[in-house]
Amino acid sequence: MKLILLLAFGALFSLNTTAQTGLRGTVKSAQGEVLPFAAVIVKGTPNGTITNAEGRYEIALAPGKYDIVFQYLGFQTSQKSVEIGTGFATLDATLEEQALRLAEVQTKAGNEDPAYTIMRRAIAKSRFHQLQVQRFKARVYTKSSFTVLDLPNLAEMAFRKQLKEAEKEANFKVGVPLLNETVAEVSFNQPNTYRQRIIANRNSQGDFLSPNRFFNASFYNPTIAESVSPLSPKAFAYYKFEYKGTFREPGPDGKVIEVSKIQVIPRQYGEGVFRGSISIIENTWAIHSLQLETVNNIGISFTIRHLCSPIQGVWMPTNQRYEGKGSYLGIKATGYYIRNLTFTEFVVNPAFVEDIEVADEKKAPPTQTLSKGDIKGKNLDELVKKQKEFSTKNLRQMVKEYEKQEKQARKNRKEDVTVVHDDSLVVDSLARKRSNVFWDSLRSVPLTSAEIKSYRKADSLGLTHEQKVKVKSDTTRQDSTAQQKKKSPNKFSLDKVLFGHTWRLSKRSSLIYTSPLTRIEYNTVEGYSLEGALNLRFRKKVDSINRFRQIPLGEWNIGGTGRYQFGRKQLVGYGQASYQYKTTKIGLTGGRYLYQLNPDNPISPFLNSLTTLLFEQNFMKLYQKEFVNLSVSASPFKNRLSLSGSLEYARRTELANYKEDLKPWIGWRNRMYTSNRPDNAEVASTGFPVHNALILNLTASARLGETQYTIRNGRRTAQRNNDAPLLTLNYRKAISDGSADAADYDFVQGTISHSFETGIRSKLNYQLSAGTFLNDRKVYFPDFKHFAGNEFFLQQGDVVSTYRLLPYYQYSTARHFAEAHVLAEFRKFFITQLTLVRLIGLKENLFVHYLYTPASKNYTEVGYGLDGLIPQVLPFFRVEVISQWQDAKYQGLGFRVGTTLKFGR
Questions:
Q1: Is residue 61 part of a domain?
Q2: pTM, whole model, 2 decimals?
Q3: What are the boundaries of the region Disordered (predicted)?
Q4: Which residues contact 167 (CB under 8 A, 6 or more apart)?
């Protein structure tokens, strides 16, 4: 029966292939070398393809006469006519290398290179080209290949068994490419909507790989993949340009076009810039093709090749190729990614016509120059009707005015103009189930012999796996006893008690258990402690956007935390309950627990445990409070404003070390444990009696500018590189309950923080804060304004706002304060002037931290840091050297190993 089905399938496949008509062939150079990934365009139709790695192509076409255009980067475009009857016709092409000729205006000694006037015009028109396309629909074929070339000897020896299993089960082997093919239907609408629907996907490992979003970017953008584009308005600060020559080829309307090849030379090569060449079409100043190379922060190099084709007069990158190679942690690998677009619908923005001429005012200014008043409030098409030639400056101003008017029109239509990207990715349920016949009808690029072999092995592995699953399933059905013994993920077991577990009670509820064994800590107040927690989470309703994203519209959390202190021989803990609806959350917490005197927790319990036991330095200072706390937080106006408030009633108690003669694991000379009562320069004693405190705490924060968002699969998130300053206001009031020792004060604070780019991978960050106690009738040490100090050689936390050498509580104040933090990150500063240093990922920074309180004597830290302490291994660590100053007098020098990672709670 199986043989009959196989023969029937083979006959069906034969009928299908013989019924098709089309064109196939090979593209080579004049020297006989195959040209991989060359563009093959069917002129006058939306059809097109690219050759595979062996230079072969195949495209399905109905019978008829066609003009076929062959393109390859660095070679002359060739056009051939062909007539297709029944079956597949063969049409090979041989391409000649482009013959560059120098322009009539030659570069003379002391004169500017002609490349600069070309690039000024291209840069001025870059945004114009981006806005030309109103909308389009296309079928996109992508193929990627990734090959591990070599593994460290130690890894091969240690994981030899696992590597053999990976080859057997997942078709992975050193030196053998891992393949992925995807066919997607995509659509784009101005200004920012991009939709993808994956209709077919095939992988030599059997896993689905999502297409990379890198290709959605355009070199007309100021940056692409976090690197400065040669067409950025800031390009001349980062690149030098050199004119290499001009070549000719047929244009979209049959007329010959001239294309100038420009060498792109970075002033300092490394991450964030490109090198290579870009070809610009004369008069239109659009990109014809490019070949650029860049490198990322771990030393992996990428080569990008784009070849553009005219679609209704607009030059679009229909043929894209990306290659990467390098090594990381001793693993050498290489890979490529190709993308071919076939447009099914293409609409040009009527406001942008291609007959606008751009004059370089530095060479030959136009006959008429417009002022800002001439442009403001005018429609772009009205200006173009009156005048055909514009200066580069005027053209940029006109495009900005157009975008301003379009943005206002969108506002009038009640559209959300803060969304800069709206992307979605949907996978068809049949994408991974497409047959070979289906793939042969869709595939734009024929498979190579090696790829066919890889797929056959993957298919055989998949069939073997399915047979194993079937046998296992049949065996399971026959053995009901074995099925009963099979462990359920929700079944109670000893390992779950020891190490914690999350039990899924239903689709909307779960029970989360945190084992005390995972939270063993030590400090001089509690001694050793164990902490465990149990939380019940229940989602009231879930909004399903697609199968990749589910958003809970309502969520309950009820639970408790218990902590046993072996030194004090006491059990403390608290219970909590909260409800969240979208961005609004209300919570109730109460119990008896220990907290740090600084509520911002300047040192984590985990790190304090290490410093206390190993280095005899007990930095963490604790007090106890019995409390009940009601809190509310919300982010109204589409998350543009954040509001939070809490009302807490507490009975607070000062604590001492649980024993006087405490001994560390290691006895250090000239060191001893300090009291739990810290020293402070403003008061004689930081001790306090047992007292009550009713505290209202209100905080509001907002961006001082328009926050921009991205939407991915329906999920709205603020952009990480949002450069609007953040303003935060805080008001804290202790309300007296009438008792003699009750806290009673009013405190206000304002903070502004900002982070913005100053160049390629360079950034300036600052945070400024100031505050005062409006009244200080009764202020206890837990109510003081505390600062983010550090006394250990490992610096953790926010690198901008954390002091490096400031004692934790020495300058805490109950009066007024001002603090400033500035951190400048440099891609190129001192040792990073060396290209090799930049290529391995090192980055330098300078920072200044300042604190004014009545007792601080203008405390200042000035420091230098080097990010990437161990390049390519621990890039998140930095080494720092810091000098201390008070009243402009030098106090000493310190060193820190810094990290942005946070340990513990």
A1: yes
A2: 0.73
A3: 470-489
A4: 173
